[in-house]
Amino acid sequence: MKSKTMNRRDFLKLQASLALSSSSLLSLLGAFSPLQAASFSDYKALVCIFLEGGNDAFNMVVPTTTTGYDDYKLIRGDISVPKDELLPLKNTDYGLYNMPAMQEMFNADKLAIIANVGTLVRPITKIEFEAGIANPPQLFSHIDQQKQWMSANSNRLEKSGWAAKAANLLENLNDFTNISVDGSNFMQFGGDKPAFEISGDIHPFNNYGYSDPDSKISFDEILHQIIQREVESDHILIKAYADNQIQNIAYRESVSQAMENALEFNFTSTLDDEPGIPLAKQLEMIAKLISVHAQLPGSPKRQIFFARLHGFDHHDLQTIDHPLKLNYLNNVLQEFQDAITSMQLSDQVTTFTASDFGRSLVPNGNGTDHGWGGHALVMGGAVKGGQIYGEFPELTVVSGEYTSEYITNSGRVIPTTSAEQYLATLASWFGSYSDSELEIIFPNLNNFNEKNLGFI
């Protein structure tokens, strides 16, 4: 292999590629105490696809009846999607836009839609919202709403995400229970074991191009020597950081060895100017990791994966960009589900979407403002598909006033289902948690009558 000189920038980039979640330092310092729950012999995985920026779900799932569509078009105006392009969903009055594979999955009972879900402390009415009663803090803020979705708590700031807390409650908690293929995220932050984070491909050190094939000392040995000096430091944080880096090296080597036996998939979906790591590449990596889950250290029986599709903050050019993103998401989800099915793991792997928030129903030019409630997709063999769960608000206007008690004066939609209800339903399938354990993961769940939505 051709060797090359490593400069300071290269070294820092490599260090970043090795990094696990920063919660690993806290874990090494003993910040958390383990909790125990049931042990499992079967395998299950949850795959979260976070639609970052705020997906306009009311242009993803649209009424198809004459009256329903006319009301929708009256509110949405120039950003409404054409009725003749809607793909009907069986036994409903709604259709999907630009997502033919998802329509096919829904009609084959392999995909469910969760209607009007969002961050809530408890159920609230429009009157309460307008009066500022029981509203989640910092509504319509990207970073705050993302964090509330990822912590599953809209009442107070959390120190860890819901996936980290869910993993803590597993008896067979594993170093590879939580895996992100798009870098750091709060959903998997703060657990007793840090999330394993990947940005791009996994390489053993001798594949980075920095080792000299004629040298007796490999690059990873040199890096070990550098870190060893930090291990011998008297400073507790320096020692913890060094231990973390050594652990990361071992993790990378273990995963890269397992990946030598991974099944090959060929995800071909593309999206022009897609920011960040392409979702197709992320989900292809997840499929490969799932194919070798039994070969990872500890053979994890439960895994939560995090992927992210960027670019949903459509303040402009929504009618051009949003349909492309929906179709791309449709294609990649189909490719991923085909890969899972080919491994005969459809019943064991459940994929679901989440987003910062929905968008305002009323356009602001050629785009939309930040909203609140939106719709989510859940697919997999264990899903009770072919149904819409939850409640759609009525999209009717009389004399300039919205008649639905869930549409605010500014045209935003108050969620009728909480993110905690949605995520708790997924978690119940994933971990068979007791009611008391679900309360640890989802602190506001008892504020809602329906704790399990029954879609899985």
Automatic annotation (TrEMBL):
InterPro entries noted in UniProt: DUF1501 (IPR010869), TAT_signal (IPR006311)
Keyword vocabulary terms for this entry: Signal
Lineage: Bacteria, Pseudomonadati, Campylobacterota, Epsilonproteobacteria, Campylobacterales
Protein name: DUF1501 domain-containing protein
Signal peptide segment: 1-37
Highest taxon listed in the record's lineage: Bacteria
